[in-house]
Design goal:
With 500 residues, this protein is of the alpha+beta class. It is built from 19 helices and 19 strands. The protein has two domains: 6-249, 2-Layer Sandwich (Nucleotidyltransferase, domain 5), CATH 3.30.420.40; 259-440 and 462-500, ATPase, nucleotide binding domain (Nucleotidyltransferase, domain 5), CATH 3.30.420. 39% of the residues lie in helices and 19% in strands. A hairpin with a 2-residue loop joins strand 2 (18-27) and strand 3 (30-40). Helix 10 packs across helix 17 (444-456). GO terms for molecular function: ATP binding; rhamnulokinase activity. One of its GO terms (biological process) is rhamnose catabolic process.
Length: 500
Amino acid sequence: MSRPQSVTVAAADLGASSGRVMLARVGRDVLELTEVHRFPNEPIQLGGTLHWDVLALYRGVLDGLRAAGRAARAGGTPRQGLDGIGIDSWAVDYGLLDATGALIGNPISYRDRRTEGVMERVHEQLGVARLYTITGLQNLPFNTIYQLAAAHGTPAAAAARRMLLLPDLLAYWLTGRQGTELTNASTTGLLDARSGTWSTELIAALGWDQQLFAPLRRPGDTIGPLTVDVAAHTGLDPTVPVLAVGSHDTASAVVGVPAGDERFAYISCGTWSLVGLELSEPVLTEASRKAGFTNEAGLDGTVRYLRNVMGQWLLQESMRTWQAHGEPADLAALLAEAAAQPGFVSVVDPDDPVFLPPGDMPARVADYCRRIGQPVPASRAAMVRCILESLALAHARAVRQAQDLAGHPVDVVHLVGGGSRNELLCQLTADACGLPVTAGPVEATALGNALVQARALGAITGELRDLRTLLHRHVTPRRYLPRSGQSATAWAGLAARLAG
């Protein structure tokens, strides 16, 4: 059978604040991406617990697939419009299924406080060094392993027969097929980093049933066709396959990095900044563990060696706080004002746990500055400047440490995702890193999702570098060079404030 010249696929990309469905046409000489549906994703506080409204997310995906099918048919494509469907989302959160396959309650958000103190108890039981040697995962209190430990002994956990991460849960509802995609499984703290399989050792040590964890899939695997009900609801051909992609959104975003060779660092920048390198083997040293680096699975056997940095969450939550207080601000205008503010006045550590939960972020930044003897930002523009310089400093620290720990030097930093629109952040990151920053594409995650689908469907062939060659031909990132007036000494002085 001859390969198709191009395919038309739907890439469902779910973020912590919104979801969208993108329509992509991909082939050897074409790469087109269009947003066809966007919907909010707002966690709900109920009974003291922060839940995701997963049924609303599922409805948003269904509505998006219906819109994608209509748009594809209008473009004259075959198969009732779509050739494939792929889903990616943020990591670590999951749903529990009972013996009938029904969902047991709304999934709980990783920002919920139920895991407070749990990580320390698990480390006492298993040993923190042992955990890292097996999983290579950065110790974050919301990792799936700690969420499951927090749920131990609850009625929901007692009734659970299967745990599915959120993209796999939605794929199950679309197809009736259960499984766990590898790149997202690698964020749970329960995957063996060397073998790429569930760690039976850890699962047994924690007293969990091995059957709770679904068989693993890899990006490009076919999950299955749509159920009859889903096909009827969306107007799609029931034979349209749902395909496994890099279902952890960062895995898809790294596929969408338009790198020309291996000497690059990446920052997938949105609510979180995932800062790291693409390697062929995990780094499981004690120095790596102490530095807070994680080893997660990528496409084609690669390792995403990275550090989680809090990202634009501080800015997003500040904007929400001002809005709630009746002081709405135009982000573009505020960024322009922040760019005119003097630099190197105040800085915070964006990874301090105080900044993790939702709430009054400007007040927390002000309290942090007081606590370490810095000036409190006197205006909203000064607050934004403080937040973005802090984030740029955290980016630079992670890039430098990753190179040192992996013995993998880089010549350029690729910043992709929503943060690539933030010109001030991109420039400050170049200044702090002392390296060129190539910003874009904004839609790296959806592009990576679509490229994996297109390869699975035969429209394109080759290895990861071949997918990036196609990206090079169709995207035009913006380049930021370090400014001569932004000395390494000044940035080191900022870092010293936090270390002191």
